[in-house]
Amino acid sequence: MAHTPTALTVTHNPDAARFEARVDGLLCQAAYRLNNSVLDIYHTGVPQALEGRGIAAQLVVAALQHARANGLKVRPTCSYVAVYLRRHPEWADVQQP
């Protein structure tokens, strides 16, 4: 059963190279590597107890907004991010060709 998306406060933690949020005390994250002007998002992690709430999507959107605001391109090596970008063509401008 799908839940209503949980409104999150996503923070950018550049020291840990990830966008993160705590939900019910659990860490959710979208981890990246920054290579020149390419944000390689290689892992999106949401604890199993929190799946289905739209948390991963909100983490990815925060990372994409950051990329767009800072003139970066995104390389989606995380399968979730690749699927998200295919489903949301409005982010095509930040995707690495």
TrEMBL record:
UniProt-listed InterPro entries: Acyl_CoA_acyltransferase (IPR016181), Gcn5-rel_NAT (IPR045057), GNAT_YJDJ (IPR031165)
Domain N-acetyltransferase stretches: 11-96
GO MF terms, alphabetically ordered: transferase activity
UniProt KW keywords: Transferase
Pfam families (UniProt xref): Acetyltransf_CG
Domain of life per record: Bacteria
Name of the molecule in the record: Acetyltransferase
